[in-house]
Amino acid sequence: MWNIGTCATINPRFRQEMEDTFAVKSNLVDKRDLFVAMFDGHGGKDAAQWCANNFGRIFRHQMLQLGQRFQKIAVLNYTFTTADKLLPQGDQSGCTAAVAYLYHPDHHDPRQLSLCLANTGDTRIVLCNNGTAGRLTIDHTCKNAKERRRVRKSGGIVLHNRVSGILQLSRSIGDHDLRPYVCCAPYTAEITIVPGDEFIILATDGVWHVLKDQEAVDIVRMAQDPQQGSQAIIDQCLVRGSRDNISCIVIELGYLENHD
């Protein structure tokens, strides 16, 4: 049912360790649903790898406990905060997190499709609608004026666009030594997929440092399928000199058109 493309590179010219990771799980809670999560680690790979191994499990357990009718946005919030609490305390690493959960709200009508999403940090989700890029997430960094105000209101300081002069991210999973200035609370949203919604892109900042949202969408649209699209994005990022690990997932949303 789902047409998905995934691609990632350590970018060995500039990096010696792969700190990006992701998880893709279909039929996680219900038939025909899709749970996709991407994590970009810093200070090591442990936090990102732990989240990739456990985010889906936490989300599924809570959904089964509460029932299908419970607000999925609330479950995503719970997943982020619970993962942050359960992350091994001795680990000094942290990570961003972006989650896309696609499901059918009406089991009797497969043409209806909804997307619940959440993110903390600067791993981004972008939607393509009729060729136009639309950013669905918020970059939680100290370049964001609202985030700088939140950090300062919590008693923190921002030096050179970094919390305490250390971390550019203003929200993350882990980084417990920077609490409460760096928090794990995600941005969340739910949208209904409509005709014209072609695909979504999840990607780490190794992509967004060198590609604009629209450029990434244009690259995918020129590809034959999501797998080629995700590979083409990685290739273009390398050409443009990205200095970070680079990871990208493309999820096709053509399911509605297939049932017209």
UniProtKB/TrEMBL annotation:
Q: Which residues form the PPM-type phosphatase domain?
A: 3-253
Q: Which UniProt keywords apply?
A: Hydrolase, Metal-binding, Protein phosphatase
| Tree of life domain | Eukaryota
Entry-linked InterPro entries: PP2C, PP2C_BS, PPM-type-like_dom_sf, PPM-type_phosphatase-like_dom
Q: Repeat as a keyword?
A: no
Question: What is an example of a GO molecular function annotated in this UniProt entry?
Answer: protein serine/threonine phosphatase activity
- Entry's family note: Belongs to the PP2C family.
Can you say what this protein is called?
ARAD1C13046p
